[in-house]
Amino acid sequence: MLGKTAVEVRADGVAVVTINNPPLNLLSVDGIFYSVDLSSYFVLSCSVHDYSPTDAWNYQLVILSLKESIEGALIRDDVKAIVITGSRGKFSAGFNVTAFGGTQGKMTKMELGFMSIQIVTDTLEAARKPFVAAIEGPAFGGGLEIALACHARISTSSAQLGLTELQYGILPGLGGTQRLPRLVGLSKALEMILMSKRVDGKEARILSLVDTIAPADKFLEVACQWALDIVERRRPWVISLYRTDKLESLAEARAILKSARLEVQGQNPNVVHPLVCIDVIEQGIVSSPRKALRKEAEALQELRQSSTCRSLVHVFFAQRQIFKIPVISKMNLLPRKIVKVAVVGGGLMSSEIATMLVLSNYQVILKETNKKHLIDAISIVEENLQNRVKNGRATQEGLEKSLSLLEGVLDYGKFKDVDLVIEAESESLSLKQEIFSNLEKCCPLHCIFTSNISTFSVKLVGERTKSQHRIAGIHFFCLSPVMPLMEIVHTESTSPQVIVDLIDFGRKMRKTPIMVSDWKGYSVTSMLLTYLHVAVLLAERGVDVYRIDQALKSFGMQVGPFRMIDMVGLQIFVVISKKFVESLPDRSYKPHLIPILQQDNREGERSGKGFYNYDNCGKVSPDPELSEYMKTARDASNVTIDSKLTKLSDSEMVEMILFPALNEACRMISDGVVIRSSDLDVASVLGMGFPAYRGGIIYWSDSFGSKYICSRLENWSKAYGGFFQPCNYIMERSAKNISLTSETRQAKSQL
């Protein structure tokens, strides 16, 4: 036995084969196990550098053990039927991500079809004894594909099922492209596969993905009885690969597939793996599902070696690395519970933060300096919540529940039991210091004090207190769920417990927290602001706003820079960027256009007008009047249209807008503001909307090389000023022809 599965033959003749590769029963070997489908990681017995993804035997070890167990059960005379399940309440979370993005050589035809055809199809599905999958917990990727090949599936209501491979640049490779459409129908299968969508046991039953739901304490017994019922012909013996009753007619199927292709191409023309997946699905419908299994295996082999797959796998690991904080990770500290959060001042900013908090079910105390400001702040929260109801993202009942969590105050009397304070006051250092002094007097000893505005050193803000150990910074990106990043700024005095608490707080708000050092007022926000400022610079010099947005969207950015400013709101954009411009004038650009738009109450999406027009249904459209505002801004600032900029190609425009943001990111690496350069890849994806399939802004830089990036920045600097001047980090690496991704610096504080 290979030892990754266990077999127990019951008295009733059912052999229970248990996948036993804890903690997630992945279809691979001991090492660093990163589930394809779960947001957590587990280090078992070796480091990532010890694990070689070139060893195909390693990938197959668990599934080979499963094959051996199945074959052993099939030849036993005392076995009537077989049930496959997973140990410790988890069926199988599929293959670990180290199996993807490799540089393996070409496989032979026999090797390509080994797992999908020889094991899953010919050994399991074609067996002369029935197989039933007993599913509890995750059944993802290859794990679900094994279950799909069984002749029936029993699950608990809380089980999670999905084929999520496309988010890693590949496609299901154990027959999922063929069996899922035959079980749930083509339209639903396309939705689940192309969107990497997971469903729970209840929905799976409605879709006929599973045959019945059973309680967690009885589902294995139900599965065993179901298997015996198949033997006795009381239940149907269903071979999923050849079912046709759920498939649409050929004409309907072709129309559905054509529509899916158009939608994929419209959403993201830069990636091919969704289209390859659709082609493989179509092959099985119009030709033969068995031939399509071969095509599926060939496609998987190609996609695993693609740049898209490597980039997405890089982002996957980078997101998991972000939670590994040197020293602190080894302390095994448990986060303390945060129940009540106070937000102090700041007008619109504080209202937006309060909205996010109540939507995350936190009790919120919102403090303002006077009654009018407080009424206005609460009105903005109510408006934000009401907009969610209008857009169908919340119910009226949900709105009322969220509002019940909010309480407005004018003093610190209600702060005696708060667990966390987020200060969002105006950019006045003395006022901030006064607030922190008051907090120390009015809040409990365990309460954490944080500042949301990033232009002052956190240490400086709290220097009048004796509570430096519980002071940190929290910066929310764009105050939008579209950008799920939260920056945590720590000083050398911030306690490890506070950091652990804030990381947990961020995750509960569905944000990914990134750690940065309190150093020279830097924050990851500066990378985003630089990106937006360059876009405005180009627009003020004659480049069409909508062409800029379209070029960045075509590159893969989630939204263009001007659409992003509208989403954030011009008022918040001005607040965030004002101090950045004042403190770092040589590295920023002061927009002339924004104040002119604000004079006409064009505040972005909130007001219905900004760079775009927004109707009551949320529809976005270009504004033909914008050109007049541009002309006014140029006249007021003596800026003229630059014919060189207006003639830029889309790719040149993308470089000119993104390279300065990359330059800012490299400054943070050089000064040790972040723990590792890959943290900035995560920050660019989650904070700027940078395309994950390009690996993040630092990883992407390798496609150009440091010499090219440096020369481009130097040329722009000569033409348009020091804003484009390459930092020393880039210049040093350019001189030595060293990649910008190489790690040579350590963070200022290793915590």
Automatic annotation (TrEMBL):
Segments forming domain 3-hydroxyacyl-CoA dehydrogenase NAD binding: 340-518
Domain 3-hydroxyacyl-CoA dehydrogenase C-terminal: 521-614
InterPro entries: 3-OHacyl-CoA_DH_NAD-bd, 3HC_DH_C, 6-PGluconate_DH-like_C_sf, ClpP/crotonase-like_dom_sf, Enoyl-CoA_hyd/isom_CS, Enoyl-CoA_hydra/iso, NAD(P)-bd_dom_sf
GO biological process: fatty acid beta-oxidation
Annotated compartments: Peroxisome
Keyword NAD assigned: yes
Main location per the UniProt record: other
Reaction catalysis annotation: (3S)-3-hydroxybutanoyl-CoA = (3R)-3-hydroxybutanoyl-CoA; a 4-saturated-(3S)-3-hydroxyacyl-CoA = a (3E)-enoyl-CoA + H2O; a (3S)-3-hydroxyacyl-CoA = a (2E)-enoyl-CoA + H2O; a (3Z)-enoyl-CoA = a 4-saturated (2E)-enoyl-CoA
Pathway stated in the Swiss-Prot or TrEMBL entry: Lipid metabolism; fatty acid beta-oxidation
Tagged with keyword Protein transport: no
Position of the signal peptide: none
Origin superkingdom: Eukaryota
Gene Ontology terms: cellular component: peroxisome
A Pfam cross-reference name: ECH_1
Transmembrane segments: none
Protein family membership: In the N-terminal section; belongs to the enoyl-CoA hydratase/isomerase family.
Record's protein name: Glyoxysomal fatty acid beta-oxidation multifunctional protein MFP-a
